[in-house]
Amino acid sequence: MGEYTGRIEIARPPAEVFAFLSDIRNMPSYLPTVTHVGPQGHHDDHDDVAVEGEAEGKPYRNDGWMKAEPEARRMRWGSHSLQDYEGMLEVKDASGGAAVELRLSLTPKPEVAERLQREHGNVDHGMRLALERTLGSIKACCEQGGMEAGGRDTPRGADDLADSRPFGSSATLNPDI
Q1: Contact 56, 130 (CB under 8 A)
Q2: pTM above threshold 0.70
Q3: Long-range CB contacts (< 8 A, 24+ apart) of 117-120?
Q4: Are 111 and 170 in contact (CB under 8 A)?
Q5: Which residue from 48, 58, 54, 51 is spatially nearest to 36, judged by alpha carbons?
């Protein structure tokens, strides 16, 4: 399993950035393969979520979990079907705003690893580039005014998302992974 980390600074208050990122309705705004996310139930230590979208021209649906820890401005997530996948995001104080730190633990699917090897010469390098693109997308969304509830122009309610599924076929929420 690979460990991939990245960090980016955002010129917005940390509490505001965390509130935006931890609201699952906003995920389609900054995760390009995701089209719908919705709650699927609550457990003592996490919420089940569902995400659906499209990656590499193919639709996906999957179930996962997410745990938001507002007091630490931390979010953790994983997939129920991909046991070797989990992620963590923390929003910290930084000069001029917030710093988002992202960590993914995963083994890319064989077809994804082959593509990353072919396109980038190295799976780890391709994964790091994809992680950087995801962080860039988060920064752009937060700094360029996309931080309203529900992310896109029209906020989505949880009832609109009941059929969604999580974390996509790539297991990273990034079309390049």
Answers
A1: no
A2: yes
A3: none
A4: no
A5: 51
3-state secondary structure of 65: strand
pLDDT in tens, 74-110: 999 998 888 888 999 999 999 999 999 999 998 888 8
Give the length of the chain. 177
Q: HSE-up of 103 (CA within 13 Å, CB side)? A: 9
Q: What is the DSSP letter of 164?
A: -
Amino acid, res. 90 = E
Q: Which two tokens stand for residue 164?
A: 């969604």
- In CATH, 2-161 is 3.20.190.10: no
**Over the range 58-69, which residues count as b (16 or more CB within 10 Å of their CB) and which as e?**
eebebbbbbebe
111, exposed or middle or buried, with CB in 10 Å at 0-12, 13-18, 19+? exposed
Q: Which helix (H) or strand (E) holds 69?
A: strand 58-69
In the chain, what are the domain boundaries? 2-161
